[in-house]
Amino acid sequence: MIKLIKPSEKYFLQYKEMMDEWLMEGSRVDPWPLDLKYHNKEYFKQMLKRVQEAEIGENIEEYPSSTTYWLYEDEKDIIIGCSNLRHYLRGETEKIWGHIGYGIRPSQRRKGYGKLLLKLTLEEAKKRGLDKVLLAAYVGNIPSWKLMEKCGGKFEKIVYEEETGLPAKRYWIDIK
Ligand SMILES: CC(C)(COP(=O)(O)OP(=O)(O)OC[C@H]1O[C@@H](n2cnc3c(N)ncnc32)[C@H](O)[C@@H]1OP(=O)(O)O)[C@@H](O)C(=O)NCCC(=O)NCCS
């Protein structure tokens, strides 16, 4: 069975295996919790602490509080991907990136897991009381905005990231 789980200490090896693969392959690492150091138990625990604090709105600076999920397959005992659900929008998330960030590890792409991860995360958004969700991806990140379109995203507009000037496409998904 494939399901969302919350990050937890008992998955250190499974997480390390996913992230080692991702970093060696070299493609974009997203959402933000995946950028945190993880490669020994100490760093891994610090990463979990950051993620748990973000969920209750502690030490988040200008970012919104958010919940992180891992897409986990129990038969194979592997983590397939990760999503981050922002509870509300402010700052950069309001201007561009929206409510949900997601990523699928390189070896598991193009198998429908991106769609599954987004669908399950949208269900969590609905449970939190959101009735529409904003998503965005760089114009050049074709797999990501195609995935948004496949999941019912309605294109809103292109916005430009302040820091890089790169264009990003924004989409809304109705989850009422
Ligand atoms: C974006 C990402 C999550 C897609 O995950 P995935 O598991 O490969 O997606 P799926 O297999 O569910 O594919 C969903 C749809 O996306 C599109 N798609 C996915 N990969 C694609 C590619 N390489 N080229 C073109 N379209 C692609 C297809 O339309 C596909 O639907 P289809 O299979 O019915 O044609 C994955 O590429 C990824 O993790 N990228 C790196 C992190 C990232 O960029 N995250 C998003 C930041 S905004």
Descriptive account of the structure:
The chain is an alpha+beta fold and 176 residues long. It has one domain: Aminopeptidase (3-Layer(aba) Sandwich). The protein contains five helices and seven strands. Strands 1-2-3-4 form a four-stranded antiparallel beta sheet, with helices on both faces. A hairpin with a 6-residue loop joins strand 6 and strand 7. The radius of gyration is 15 Å and the shape is globular. The two termini are 27 Å apart. The mean pLDDT is 97. The site of coenzyme A has 21 residues, from strand 4, helix 4 and helix 5.
Q: Provide the low-confidence segments as ranges.
A: none
Largest sheet: 4 strands, antiparallel
By CATH, the superfamily comes out as: Gcn5-related N-acetyltransferase (GNAT)
Q: In DSSP terms, counting alpha (H) and pi (I) runs of 4 or more, how many helices?
A: 5
**Within the CATH hierarchy, at the fold level, what is the topology?**
Aminopeptidase
Radius of gyration: 15 Å
N-to-C SSE string, H for helix and E for strand: EHHEEHEHEHEE
How many strands?
7
Mean pLDDT: 97
Helix proportion range: 25-40%
What strand order characterises the main sheet?
1-2-3-4
- The CATH architecture name reads 3-Layer(aba) Sandwich
Question: In a few lines, what is going on in this structure?
Answer:
With 176 residues, the protein is an alpha+beta fold.
